[in-house]
Amino acid sequence: MNPAAASAAVDLPPTRRRLDRDDWLMRGGICLMIVWLGITLILPLWWLLSKSFQNQDGQFVGLANYIQYFSTPALFASVWNSLFVAVLSTVIVLPLAFIYAYALQRSCMRWKGLFQALALIPILAPSLLPAISLIYLFGNQGFLKEWMFGVDIYGPVGIVISQVFYCFPHALMILLAALSMADSRLYEAADALGASKTRVFFTVTLPGAKYGVISAGFVVFTLVITDFGIAKVIGGRFNVLATDIFKQVIGQQNFEMGAVVGFVLLIPAVVAFFADRIIQGRQVALLSARAVPLIPQPDSRRDNALFVFCAVVGSLIFVLLAMAVWASFVTRWPYNLALTLKNYNFGEFDTNGWSAYVNSVEMAAWTAVIGTVIIFVGAYLLEKTRSFAVGRVLAQFMAMLPMAVPGLVLGLAYIFFFNARGNPFGFIYATMAILVVNSITHFYTVSHLTATTALKQLDHEFEAVSASLKVSLLRTMTRVSVPVCLPAVLNISIYLFVNAMTTVSAVIFLYSTETKLAAVTIINMDESGFTAAAAAMAVAIVATSASVKIAHLLITRRLERRTQAWRQR
Amino acid sequence: MQEKDATPVKNPYLRIERLKKQFGRFWALKDISLEIFPGEFVCFLGPSGCGKTTLLRAIAGLDIQTSGRIFQADKEISNLPASQRDFGIVFQSYALFPNLTVADNVGYGLVSRRLPKVEIATRVTDLLRLVGLPDSGPQYPAQLSGGMQQRVALARALALSPGLLLLDEPLSALDARVRAYLRLEIRHLHRRLGVTTIMVTHDQEEALTMADRIVVMNQGVIEQVGTPLEVYREPSSAFVADFVGKTNLLPGIVVKPGLVRYGAMDLSCSIDIKPGPGSDVTLAIRPEDVVVRNVDANAENTFAVRVAEMEFLGSFCRVGLTLNGDAKPALLADFSINTVRDLSIAEGMQMLVGLPRERIRVFPGTPKPP
Q: B106: nearest CA in chain A?
């Protein structure tokens, strides 16, 4: 129609947007993020992989190590042991955590706050703590040993009970979130149609929480299969993959076989990770913006039943916690129950004494501060950079990968990579820095997802508005995005602190005599037979994490009152 | 409004040349060319997915076009990033910074200009007065109603005195009453400031009441550009006729120039019919143009109908009319309440209606099923 258009039938050349300063900054930032994760994650894993194909002299031997591994029944049996323990723990934790979460979110029972706080405490403890408590209760000198009817607590039974305790709060948090929101209109509709309570539960409640249950299942499975501390302390002669790595590397100095076991351990973790991702990808928002939040109505029979259930589960958690605390103050178990502080005199049991504890606090603090900055800025860049798809996809993949890498595997990979001859980054080996870097990488994904979720809730047009007002993105980030996301930023830092404080798996390979950590000394002292001192150190860690967590809650509340005044109407 | 089109003495402020935008294998914009004149209020109107927002974002530089050129104030801006273009923008979601007060939101762009504090404060006060919120400066956005928040967003967009104001469905998130009020407010503001304005909307009423010119878009192409009256009275395609206002679209066959057969009837129309005799065409007539008073049985375009259903819509009735004992109504007609009362129109009634020849429009092709 338009004569000008008709005559110029040839397309105009494609338009390429000129990049402004913000574009360059952000792309540069993403490249930095890729380099960072490349050095702290990808290259170490690559080194580990190549190590598993080498003999002790560093020559390539193909699959020889793997063939040896799978043809040694003693080693291969651990695969089944690990899977058995992981599946059993998952099957036990899921229903317990679901009912507990249901009671907290959907009933009107009393003492909800107390039950919630109690159930979440184990998250602040190293996984070793429940294992130590169980030894005190049911071990060789346990005062409830008869209750076991001759079953040895050192082995799968002890492992599964400890894992259930350790994983319960992780599953509970996911299920609390999954059950936190419900559309009351669905329940009203079901009521109006005359559905029974059971039917409503199976047709409305459960489907609504389906993805949470699946996710919790994968999380528990991965936690159990990759956990090292529990199996080390209470596993006895029951070998699992995580302890095998430790034995091969520390016990027999067989790094190549350690690398092989590391890769075997990586497989279930990676499979669980991708299976969860795929299933979660199918999730569609069940709650529309118009949903009317469900407010639970009192129902005395249900509420009482749930109260009894929570009381039983809560008491078990309390007993395990209290046992460790008590044991840490007892003079000589079980002969002299007089209370004493001498178990806290760590210098008598371990050459590092209290300095290990100081190291842990220092390491956790650095991890929290540096990690939060790196992870939040990284998530911001990924969320806000336009085009540059190659870099974004690559960085996003790298940010998600740590979730699938067990701590032991990451720690082992760090030995190989940072200890390799000629590595320019070798200077951080055996320093505090390598522990901090390792912890940031180890706990990267969950923090990254927290930051991403918070950033996604911001209006997507903030950056467009800033551009139209000629304000740089850096300024909008510091003036708007960070303040609005402050609660999430604090959550990330506390998550990093607590995890760095309690972790054993990755750092067990990386500490030096000067940088030994509290959680590691628990294992050492337990191995040397100083169980009470081990319990005392575990209690010291819980106390520290708990105080930091409480301080965090107080600070968050004050900050919210001051800087988040805009949230209130 | 008519004058502006008749005497294009001014150079266009914004010139869009052969713009195309591709998302994967989907072409969101297919060769768009358009000129917008200084001080004009232009609406991009179309159903969702027609490309109107894509076009707006290309003009802003937020999502750059695949190919094509854009000139603003005689300067080519085709490949400039948004930060180097001259525009203010308002979004449906307001996109106000929640942690900053209203005054800080409005002054957000001014602070970066390193202006003295007093100057910023004065400018912010002026802007807030301009949008009718002189006292809201110290409040946070969440403390304001939706309509007030959108006015703050408007003040913020105007803060740097941009040459071009872009409004992306600014009223769609608001209640009907607030929407009607703000429609007028924005119109007044535009008249006062004279800033060239482009508004994207899917609401034909909004476009008809606010725009100097409407750009009707569908599936990545411009269907029609014209004043509200032109677009309503003389739609250039069956799509425009149907999208803007309500229209009867009837299948017909051209008999000869000026005569189209619809069913068993021959209808005369006064406009030129492009397709030759025997071609399928679509007849379009608006419900309010169906005549029922003083209809002469022997006049052209007159036929007998039966009232099948009546819908009471306040000041008028929308009436479904059936022909020759069909079950489904073939024609909708709007009769004022006066007419309904005077002629005692009721369901089941037989009557004569006429379709004025000058009100019938003819488009090539058969009507698309709804």
A: A469
